[in-house]
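INFO batch 0412 | record 1 of 1 | parsing
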Amino acid sequence: QVQPVESGGGLVQAGGSLTLSCAASEGAASGRAFGMNGMGWFRQAPGKEREFVATICWNGEHYADSVKGRFTISRDNSKNMVYLQMYNLKSEDTAVYYCAARSVRTCAVYPENYSYWGQGTQVTVSS
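INFO prediction complete | emitting C-alpha cells
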C-alpha cells in the first residue's frame, strides 16, 4: 500500500514560485513494484470539483492545459518522493493540492483512477 503525505503549501504572490512535496511511502505491497507506480497531483478550489494537474508514470509526464509550461512534476524513487514545481503562479491556481498514487504504473488524469490520497496542502496565490 502507498500512503501519500503532502507538504510545501503556502502563500505566494502572483508570478511567484512554489514547490510541493509528496512523501509516498510504500508498505507491504512494495514487493509489487510500487516504486514505479503512477503518481498524480490534483487540486480543488472552494465550490469546484477536484481537477487534474499533473501525472508522472513509467512512460512520461502529462499536464493539464491550465498549468502546462508552468508546472513540472518529478519524482525521486530512491526517497519515495514526488514533487510539483510551480512557476508563474496565478490567482486561479489557488486551491488545496492533493498528491495521489495509483496501484499500477500507468498515468491517469481522473481522480477515480487513483487508489491512495494525501490530506492535501493549501496553496494560496495573492494578486
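INFO post-check: The mean pLDDT is 92.
INFO record closed
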